[in-house]
Prior knowledge:
Elements: H1 2-15, H2 19-28, H3 48-54, E1 57-66, E2 74-80, E3 86-91, E4 96-100, E5 106-110, E6 117-122, E7 127-132, E8 137-141, E9 151-153, E10 166-171, E11 177-185, E12 188-195, E13 201-205, E14 213-218, E15 225-230, E16 234-239, H4 245-248, E17 249-254, E18 266-274, E19 279-286, E20 294-300, E21 303-309, E22 317-323, E23 328-333, E24 337-343, H5 345-367
Parallel strand pairs: 1-21
Antiparallel strand pairs: 1-24, 2-3, 3-4, 4-5, 6-7, 7-8, 8-9, 10-11, 11-12, 12-13, 14-15, 15-16, 16-17, 18-19, 19-20, 20-21, 22-23, 23-24
Amino acid sequence: MCELVCSLYELKSVYQLPINSVIQSARKQNLLESLDLESDFDGDSCDIKTLKTMFSGQYKLEAETSVSMSRCFVLHISGSVSSNSKIVAALSNYSCAVYDVPHLTKLDTTSEHKGPVSGINPARDNLFYSCSLDGLIKLWDLRSGLKKSVQVFKDDTDDTGHPKPLRSFDIACNDRFVSAGTELVDGDAFLLFWDARSSNLLGGYWESHREEITQVRFHPSKCDTIATGSTDGLINIFDLSQGCEDDALLYSLNTEASVRKSVEDCYLVNLHQNTSSRELFLIAGTTAQRGECLRTVAVKNNTLKPLSQFLENKQIVRTSWYDENNGMLVTGGESGLISLWKPSKSTLESSSSGRKMSSKAKEHHKHMPY
């Protein structure tokens, strides 16, 4: 939940999205019903006909592949949008695999990490980074294959000489800086910074979070602004142009998250944005029954509204990647499947209608500002 709130806050500056209003709206509409303390089972409270009316959009399964013959989870998926689109999947066996889009043919794989891969991030068309609990961030060049990484980032400055385990990372929008958050190391959680060109460690912060840092996100256009989320419940915003950590900390938001009961049958996968329509949507699922239930809800006018279903889903989904150019979604999960989904015609028409309405509203506002 903290990761989701961190993602929402990152987009708040662009969309002026009040997070509390969205959460309260979800509770009023019973979209978070399975998270209530009195509920131990997640299930639909309406019949199939009503459900189809509410979730009118559909995503069709276009391609699907299994990542391994043995049991293996798909933990992270990321990709680049280009004429020859590719995705990279991080697997629970510590490896990363590259697939083409839209056929999902495996192109290459690497097993260089010695611990769980905690994140992947594309740099340019043929480059991507991987981050691991083994304490290493590695840069890969797809043109030369994945036999050996071309660059390694680490912090082994403590007395043991072992790299600090890395939970999350990101690359600045100008591709000059790499930052990562660590697990607790001798009671401290570190936010580390490297020069992306030389891989030299530039420094770090370790006084702003009390527990492991689970999310690190640079601002999409301001390379000196970074947001972090932690299991201590804090979301911190830093200005890296300042000289010290105290001066760099601009905002510290306390989500006031407290765990009173663990309800494990309902989960949130990811938050995506459609750049053309400036709309947000959440992907959510349930572990009830066989875990095949997967749906999206749109964030509109400070409320959550039912959007689409994935009727051919076969697994509990752990991660997703959205191709904003054509509306395709790629999901991966606990059955070791990578699935490519294309929106139905009705879903595309709904999105197009939303763009037109948004455009008309802007024009109206432009001519009548008062």
